[in-house]
Design a protein that fits this description.
Distance between the termini: 65 Å
Number of strands: 8
Keywords: Hydrolase
EC number: 3.1.13.5
Number of domains: 3
Protein name: Ribonuclease D
Strand content: 5-15%
Order of helices and strands: HEEHEEEHEHEHHEHHHHHHHHHHHHHH
Strand order of the largest sheet: 2-5-4-3-6-7
CATH architecture of the largest domain: 2-Layer Sandwich
Oligomer: single chain
Organism: Streptomyces umbrinus
CATH superfamily of the largest domain: Ribonuclease H-like superfamily/Ribonuclease H
CATH class of the largest domain: Alpha Beta
GO molecular function, one term: ribonuclease D activity
Structural class: alpha/beta
């Protein structure tokens, strides 16, 4: 660190206590330049081999980040990978020019990777061969430690006393060459990530939550890749307005056509055709291109060929036999929506109300978000189909069966036993 960085780091964790002399909060320091300058972007195999050797020889955890082009390109691929490790410095790697980073992933096997909001970056890192075996998630650590704001900028400022410039977070990272201000921003994102990790580890240890955090990090690192979402077209914004099966078929046809076009052109689907336009066409069921062009989202800027493409999708949906139309809803697994519980099973609704109140109170006592203490879905499932006996062993087994970590089972079981037992007595 520079002298200024060391001074600020000495006052770490200011948001959770440990105020400086006279309780005067020092002003945060703008972090304007990486301590070693902006490194060159690695875009060839020879330079990549040098980076791999340097990072393999480095020491301690490695800070890792990735930049995507969400809203600009199709999918969630990485367009820049940033790393920093003691003894190796900072590296900026172009995964378009170097699409296989499995060698780097292997060199860092067994090393703790420090990421912020790891679940956002791990899928695109996995695509290029980078999969951690150990990780520390600074955003999740902040949640478990009770920080009210857990964005990277807020955490770096609140914990380490530096201000990160965040003006380039939503730019088109597929741009080539990448402008120098963007590269500076990218390098600064990993500049203090290990320092933040070290400070948060101390705070979690002080609060008695370090082992909890380690279990959460292990669960993220060992989680399998998510299954592809079934019927992704059903998540079209505004879908709640579409009630008839024929209209649903139009949404499906337009969504799937848009997806093929977006993938072929490597462009964000929303830039091809907006969700609002898809829903508008489904509700209107236009008879021809002229009627389609009159709808919002299919205006005068759209060419005749494009309009014909969308009208063809509408026509395909209109011509489907009834047996091939989509069903109104997806098959439901697990409990029904909580709003329906009072009518379907009033006793289960009472269990859920008591359990939610108990978990909420415990989360407040532990100073962490309720969803990090235990997922709401797990609570719903236990309350909808409670174990035959509401004793601690049975409730703990049910929680573990739904994927709760050991620390969660230990903390949540006692309050759920009380809530379930109380409602069982009420039923009797």
């Amino acid at each position: 660190m520079t002298d200024a960085q060391e001074t600020a780091a000495d006052s770490s964790l200011r948001t959770t206590g440990g105020a400086p002399p006279d309780d005067v909060e020092p002003a945060p320091i703008p972090l304007l330049e990486p301590r070693d300058g902006i490194p060159p972007v690695i875009a060839d195999e020879a330079s990549l081999a040098e980076v791999i050797a340097a990072f393999e020889a480095g020491s301690g955890p490695v800070a890792v980040d990735a930049e995507r082009a969400s809203g600009y390109r199709y999918g969630q691929r990485a367009y820049l990978v940033q790393l920093r490790r003691e003894g190796a410095g900072t590296a900026l790697i172009d995964p378009v020019a170097c699409p296989d980073l499995s060698g780097l992933g292997e060199a860092l096997s067994g090393v703790e990777w420090v990421l912020h909001a790891a679940t956002q970056d791990l899928p695109c890192l996995r695509e290029i061969g980078m999969v951690p075996s150990l990780l520390f998630d600074t955003e999740l650590a902040g949640r478990l430690a009770g920080f009210p704001r857990v964005g990277l900028g807020a955490m770096v400022e609140g914990v380490l006393g530096f201000v990160l410039e965040k003006g380039h977070s939503a730019v088109d990272w597929s741009t080539r060459p990448l402008p120098e201000p963007w590269l500076r921003y990218a390098a600064l994102d990993v500049e203090l990530l290990v320092d933040l990790r070290d400070a948060l580890e101390k705070e979690l240890d002080r609060q008695g939550k370090l082992e909890w955090a380690r279990q959460e990090f292990d669960a993220i690192a060992s989680a399998p890749p998510p299954e592809p979402r079934k019927d992704p077209w059903r998540r079209t914004s505004g879908m709640h307005k579409v009630r008839r099966r024929r209209q649903m078929a139009v949404v499906r046809e337009l969504w799937e056509t848009r997806d093929r076009v977006a993938q072929r052109r490597d462009i964000s689907p929303g830039k091809v055709l907006g969700d609002a336009a898809i829903v508008e066409a489904a509700l209107s069921l236009p008879a021809n291109v002229h009627a389609l062009a009159a709808l919002n989202g299919f205006g005068h800027r759209m060419g005749r060929r494009q309009l014909e493409q969308w009208q063809a999708a509408v026509d395909r949906a209109k011509e489907l036999p009834d047996a091939e139309l989509p069903q109104p809803g997806q098959p439901v697994t697990g409990p029904p929506p909580p709003r329906a519980w009072a009518e379907k099973d009033p006793v289960a609704a009472a269990r859920l109300s008591a359990a939610r109140a108990a978990v909420s109170a415990l989360a407040e006592t532990l100073n962490m978000p309720q969803e990090n203490l235990i997922t709401p879905d797990t609570v719903r499932r236990v309350c909808w189909e409670p174990p035959a006996s509401a004793d601690a062993e049975s409730v703990a087994a049910a929680l573990a069966g739904y994927g709760a970590r050991p620390w969660q089972v230990e903390q949540v079981t006692p309050v759920l036993v009380v809530a379930l037992a109380a409602k069982a007595k009420t039923k009797e």
